[in-house]
Amino acid sequence: MPVARLKQYLDEKGVSYTAIQHAPAYTAQELAEAAHVCGNRLAKTVIVMLDGKMAMIVLRATAKIRWDRLCNELGTDFIELADEEEFADKFPDCEIGALPPFGKLYGMQVYMDEKLANEPEIAFCAGTHAETIRMATKDYLELAKPIVISRGFMQPDATPPLQRIRPGRQQFHLHP
């Protein structure tokens, strides 16, 4: 049972949490609806390779990664999305796409979006597509000990800034 390891860890630490069982959900929107959680408080876990080393990025389900800014924020020369084949064996007790944001349980460093870290509550997949854990963000921060970062993320509906220049010159949008 994928959830057992995570629940055991939370129980051992004496943390209060709510386990929410629901119909299987495979997208952030489906999960937010099934678990009745606001998308800004729903965490998604993304596995990346930072200069060849695997790490977790935890961000709001409603956000997107800005790879160029994230690379600068982390001070790394190279960052890429890890392939499922590269990390599936590190999560034998989890369904792919439902990874809990606890790198400590899997030997990985965790980096977390500051906006998510500032939410009072956090919800995330418990290792399966049919169960979500909801807990106080302060408890998550204390247990997971992520490195909280402020740059590298954006809302999907955000409009890139328009560079303003003098009339008669070409205008262009900065790429997100």
TrEMBL record:
It holds the Pfam family tRNA_edit. Transmembrane segments: none annotated. This is YbaK/EbsC family protein. GO terms for molecular function: aminoacyl-tRNA deacylase activity. Residues 22-142 form the YbaK/aminoacyl-tRNA synthetase-associated domain. It comes from the Bacteria.
